[in-house]
Amino acid sequence: MHIKQAYQMEEIAEQVKNSNHAKTLAANLKKLRPGHYNKYKELNNKIDNPYSLDNISSLLGISRRHYSRLENPNYTSKNITLEKLIILFTRNLLCKR
C-alpha cells in the first residue's frame, strides 16, 4: 500500500482507531486462557497452574484486577499493549495447542 498524501495517513489512523480490534483481542484472551487453564489442571493436578490469573498478571507486572479488565471486551478505557501481548506469546501462554 503506497501512501501519496499526508491526509491518507490521517484516514488510516482514524480507521484503526474506530476498529474493534481491542474488543476482539479481549474476547480471544477471555476464551483462550480458561481453556488452557482447565486443560493444564486436568493433566497436572497438584502443580501451580501457569494459566491462572495470578500467574499471568505477575508475569506481565500488573495486578490481577487489571488483567481481568484486559480480558473484558466491554472495558474500553484500557487495552492490552503490544508489549504485553509479545510477552504472552513468547512464553507460549496464548498459542493454540
Can you describe what's shown?
This protein has 97 residues and is mainly α. Helices cover 63% and strands 0% of the residues. It has five helices and no strands. It has helices spanning 6-18, 21-43, 53-60, 64-71, 82-90. The protein starts with 5 loop residues before the first helix and ends in a 7-residue tail after the last helix.
Feature tags:
mainly alpha, 0% strand, elongated, 97 residues
Give, in order, the helices and strands.
Answer: HHHHH
Tally of alpha and pi helices: 5
Number of domains: 1
Rg over C-alpha atoms, rounded to the nearest angstrom: 17 Å
Measured as a percent range, the helix fraction is 55-70%
Largest sheet: none
Classify the beta-strand content into a percent band.
under 5%
Gross morphology = elongated
Helices, strands, pairings?
Elements: H1 6-18, H2 21-43, H3 53-60, H4 64-71, H5 82-90
Helix pairs in contact: 3-4
